[in-house]
């Protein structure tokens, strides 16, 4: 062997290592970490002004609790362990000041409104049990409380209307296990292999057929992951109306298509062999078909969105600034995500945009399913806002915001990362044109919008709530539905009420209706409602009179009264309905914002129903009324448990008052019919299950405001479109060739 060969090999290896090192180093120089640019500077005072709408801080919530404990003269039990016969604090939320007072502060240099809380208390331990609402203030150090119950509702709120506490559900669970199930040990053991842990239950609502009832069907499922689609055929009607838990009783039992007086009768019939038993195959703890564990291993990394120079929006306290947009946000315990003081180019276009209610009406041939009309605001859309998973629920690099609340406890709770804010490149142009006639050019603008999102998990349903802000001055309110389909045990004529989705599982038909409050202030507080549409007219061609032309023309109508502005759910509505200002644009048109609804709602419950008035907002796809402080919401948390005598009936808001040149509110209902199908297993996807509305400028500006966006692209055939100064997209290989600074993945949801 040549003695020089080892040295040659060593030198060659050193050269290769040197080359590879240079390549790695040069690659590192080409892909540095992305660096944020300085954040947008806000106008002085804008952030502090938005605090007039801010949710209560943990310190303020704690102060309210301490004040109530020391100044009501009664003992308050922690609601998390309260019995129906106890006094307790159900919830505490911010009391948003009156609009006139807020506008005087924001626009007129008036004093900052007093900061107050609204506390809902259950008084079960007194001769006349009732629900009372107090306004407590001023914060942060309260010294007074006012009972506002009669002022808001015209009388006391009867105790039977109170939303069920978590402790009451637990007490019913104990009753079922220790009293109801104890009466049918043989049936439960032999049919369900019941061991005290393998059965889960889901409640229904409303609780009965008339005011004062508190009788609930509890549907039994296998206690596995995704239990909502594992019914076992047993449902129990519990009368829990008494404040004395020892007096609760089973009123009726249903099993596999047959009704029984109670569990004793069911047990007797089973022992005597008089029951048709349908044994359900025992599911593993992961739920088997209902498990959301992926059936495929991870593969190539999914596409990600990042911000090469950091966020182009700012979030300070409850105030958001994005390009020409600014607004304040909050999270109501009952109704969830809401926005205030929404401005575009410095001018207020809406005072409030908020979720009001999410209603679902079910059908089934089982008692629990056929009697269910869930009004999720009663359970708490904001209360059940769930922690968001970075990279799935929102983009990985979104801004995540913690929210705080006090509900069914004496201590404030933090909901970690329960709201996210992000700018999203929607992957399509907001507008564009390619010209190859006369002159040769391309002009376009990417559709990049700001999204504010929260996701509420109320029982089996997950609602993705979005408010989206576009560069052309449009706002979108959107909800996407996912989660598990609720189900019934398949028996008899069950296929009249849905589709079979597993061996014993009937995916039950239901309607979903979502109600929003939109308080538009277009060019000022006073607006009118105008409808534009089209009609064909027949005319003779002026240049050829013997020929007829059918041409569309514009129709215009001012809607003068609330009755004219109330459009029934399935009725034909003018395609252009807009709030008109008292000012005009450069071209002589009234400045306006148009309401455009996206909905494929099922039918509304018949108005002859004894409970329809409680959900009468769902009669209308759009209803515009005069804004009144005494009509702050379209419904009430008390309507769920007494829909037969509703605490708030939206139908009463519409009384033919004049709505010309008034402060107006639009109540928008969007919805969809859901007939569950096999692809809803393991759970429902958001695709196709998205409804909402758009608020679009209509002659509000003299031209499209997005023409002033910094993101616009324009070049001609005569320009060098590879030059950065001509075409900013040409700079991307250099300006966006950086590695995003993704924070480590964390999740605190299981600690909430």
Automatic annotation (TrEMBL):
Start and end residues of each Copper amine oxidase N3-terminal domain: 162-257
Sequence ranges assigned to domain Copper amine oxidase N2-terminal in this UniProt record: 63-144
The record's account of how the chain is modified after translation: Topaquinone (TPQ) is generated by copper-dependent autoxidation of a specific tyrosyl residue.
EC number: 1.4.3.-
SUPFAM superfamilies: Amine oxidase catalytic domain (SSF49998), Amine oxidase N-terminal region (SSF54416)
Biological process annotations from GO: amine metabolic process
GO molecular function terms listed in the Swiss-Prot or TrEMBL record: copper ion binding; primary methylamine oxidase activity; quinone binding
One of the record's GO cellular component terms: plasma membrane
Superkingdom of origin organism: Eukaryota
Record domain Copper amine oxidase catalytic: where: 305-707
Entry keyword set: Copper, Membrane, Metal-binding, Oxidoreductase, TPQ, Transmembrane, Transmembrane helix
Transmembrane spans: 7-26
Family indicated by similarity: Belongs to the copper/topaquinone oxidase family.
Official protein name in the record: Amine oxidase
Species, as recorded: Rynchops niger
